[in-house]
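User: Batch of two.

Assistant: Item 1 of 2:
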Amino acid sequence: MLVDSARYFIPDSTLSRIREEAPYLSRCSDNKTAVNIRPREYAIRYPYMQINRSNMVSWLIFDLDHNNPWIWQDKDLPSPNIVVTNRENGHSHLFYAIPPVCTSENARSKPIRYMKAVYEAMASKLGADPSYSGPVAKTPGHPWWITSELHNTVFELGELADYLDLEIKPLWSKGPDYEGNSHSRHCLLFEDLRFYAYSIVTREKREGSFFSFVRLLEAKAFEFNNFKNRGFEQNLTVAQVKATVKSVSRWTWDRYTGSSRCNRGVMKLDKSLSVAERQKLSALRTHERRIQATKQKILSAYRYLSRNSIPITFTALSERSGVTRQTISKYKDFIESLSKNEANKTSEGVSVTHNRDSVKYGTHQITALCNVYLFSSELTGLISIVSVHKNKKPPD
C-alpha cells in the first residue's frame, strides 16, 4: 500500500512537522525492528519509522496497548495532535508536539528531567506502555493505520504539566537494599554506586561537569567491584562495570533533585486547587492560546491577499493560512473586523482623489500647506510691526 506523501508537504500541518523534525536519515521498515535507514522523504512511505532524532525529542509518543484511543477525553487531558490506530486490534500511538528538548550528553538536565516527569505522569493517566521509549513509532498517514489529525498546536511542557500532578518518588530516601539484592553482583554494584552518586551529584553540578561526575563514578565503581572478597566466584567485567556507570550517571544527573516534587506548571496554579479545577483552568488557557494562534494565521493570510490584490474569500484564506475552510468560517466576525479596519485606513489616508462630487466639501477643507502659509504670513506681519515700533523714536 502506498502512502499519500503529498500530505507531508502541506505547510504548517502536523504531518509536515513529523517530516521536518525526523532525522534526515531515519530508521524505517515494514515491522517494529525498523532496520532500514532511508532519507526521511522515503522513510515516511514505510508503516514504521523513527520519529524523534537520537539527541532531540520533538514529540511525546504514547503507546496504548488497549483499544481506547480517545482515553485522553475520559482523563480530561488535552487532545493529542495525532492519533494513529491499528485497524485490526485498536491499539494506538498518541503524538503530542512539544518544543524540541535536547537530550545529548551536553544538554541541560533540568529540561530533560522535567520532560520525563511530564511523560511518565501522562503515560500513567493514559494507561500507556511505561516501557515504550521509541524512537520508532507507527508512521502517521500510512494506509496501514487510521490516522486522525486533530490540530497543530505545539504544547509547552508547563502547559501539559498543568493537567497533571507531578510527583517523583524519592528512590534515594532509603539506604542500599543489600538483603533484596544479595544474590546479584550487578544489583549490589548498582545499589552501592547510586547512593554514592546521590552524595556527589549536587556538588558536581555546581563545581564540575557531567564528564567529571562520570569519571568519579567510574573510579568508585571499580573500587566497589571486589566481589571475590564478598564470596562470589569472580568480579564483574570492565564492560559490565562501565554499563552500570553509564546507567547510574545519566539517571542521577537528569533526575536527582533531593526533593520529591517537580515544577507545578506554566500557570503556577495554587496547590490548594483540586486537580479538576486546575485542569479546567488549563483547558481554558489552551483553548484561548489556540484561538489566538488561529487568528494570527488568518491575519497573516488576509494581509498577504490584500497586499497582492487577491480576492479575499474563505477558500483563499484557507489555502494561504493552512486552516481548514470550516474553521475559517467560524472566524467570520474576526474577518469582517479586519475588512472594516482596512476600510477605515483607506478613508483616513493622506492622498485623496477629488472629483466633481467632492467639490462641495472644498469650503470646509484647508490643507496643511495652507495653514503653514497663513501662519508664516501672520508671523511676517507681526515681525514687521515689532520692527517699526522698535525703530520709532520716542516723542520729545
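Item 2 of 2:
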Amino acid sequence: MPTQHLTGGRIRDRRLELGLRQAAVAAAVGISPSYLNLIEHNRRRIGGKLLADIARLLEVDATLLTQGADRHLLERMRGAAAAFETDAEIARAEDIAARFPGWSALIVAQARRIAALDTHMAALTDRITHDPQLANALHEVISTVTSIRSSASILVTQEELDADWQRRFHENIHKDSLRLAASSEALVAYLETPEADVDIVQSPVEQLESALARTGYHVAALEAGNADVAQVARDLGLKGPATVLFASFAKQYMADARVLPLATFTEACRALDYNPAQLAGEFGADFAAVLRRLASLPADTSLPAMGLAIADVSGTLTFLKPVPGFNYSRRNGACPLWPIFGALSRPTQPVRAEVSLPDAARTRFLCYAIAQPQGAQQFDVTPVLNSTMLVVADPPESKANAIAVGGSCRICPRPDCTSRREPALIGISGARGL
C-alpha cells in the first residue's frame, strides 16, 4: 500500500493524541467534518496547503504524516525485534516510531546494549574455557587454598603438638594466606572490566566501523597517502585488535586515494553522474576501488546517499557502511538476494541492479557489485573471493524490474520467497500493504 494511503490514519492518531475533536480540526482548516472523516479513514487523498495546515495544527512535521517514521530508526527497530525473537507487533513498528521517536530510539539503544553485553558474555565464556593465563591463575588460587586447608586441619586434629611445630604451621598458613591474597588480587584485576570502557563490549570490527561512522567514512588524514596510520588510529580512539583492522583498512584507503585523488575524482563523479563503470574507465582504475572511493567521499548535499558492503565468499559481511533502509545486523544474516551475493557466482563481472525493499514506501536502491579474487593467483590454490557492493539510495525512476530483497528472514514479510531460511516472526504476515 502506498505511503500516501497511510497519511489519514496518522492524522487521526495525532489528533486523538492531542485530544482534539474532529469538528474543531475541520473548522480550523476550513473543511467539513465529514470530509476530514474521509481523509482520516484513507478514503480521500491529501496534500499541498491542506496537509500543511493540518500538520501545523497538529504540531507535527508534514513529512511525518506522509512518510511516517524515520526509515533508519524503523529499520533498527525491526532488527531489534528479529535479533531477540520476540512476538512484538512488527506490523505496527512504523506507527510506534512515528508517534514516539524518542521511546523508539531508547528501545533501539537498549537492544544494542543487550546485544553488546551478549557478545561480551560470550567472549568471557570463551576466555574462561580456553585462556591459559586464567587457567594458571585459578590453579594457583586452588593450590594455595588446599595448602592452607591442609595446614589448618593438622592444627585442629592434632591435640598435642609441640610449640615448634605449631609455629611452623602458623607460619605456613600466614605465608599461604599472603600468597592467596596476591593471586586473588591478580585474578580479579585480570578479569575486571573497567566500567567506563565502552569498547570492551564491541568486537574489533564494530569498533572500527563505529570510529569510521563518526568521520562519515571519509578519513581526511589518509587522503595524502603518507599518513602515520598508528597516530590516526589513536586519534580515532581505536585500540587493541581494532588497530590491526584499521591498518589494513588504511592501506587500502590510501591506495585508492592515490589512484583516485579526491579533487579530480569528485569533479569526474559530477561530470559522469557517479557512474562507476565510466569512472573506472576514466581513471583506468579497478572497479571495486571506484565503489570504495564513492562510499568514502565527504558528505555533501549534492551527493547521493551511498552505502557500502563487503562480503567474503562465505557470505559473511566483513565491512558495512549503512544508509537508511540498508543496515544489517551480522547476528541475523543478510538477505541472500542482494547483488553482493549474486556477484560471487560470476567473479570479475560487474553487476548493476535495482532492488526493492518490502516496506510501505517500496524503498528502492541502485546497486553496483563485483566479486574479485584477493592476492596473487596460484596453481592448485582456490582463489579467495571478496564481493564489494555500492548501494545508492533514492535512484531516479526507472522502468527496470527491481529485485525483491528483504532484511533478515525473521522480519521479512514476503510470504512466497524461495530463499527464505526461517519463518517470519508472529504477526508480520498481517502487515497491511506488504
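Strands lie at 306-312, 317-321, 351-356, 364-374, 384-393, 403-404.
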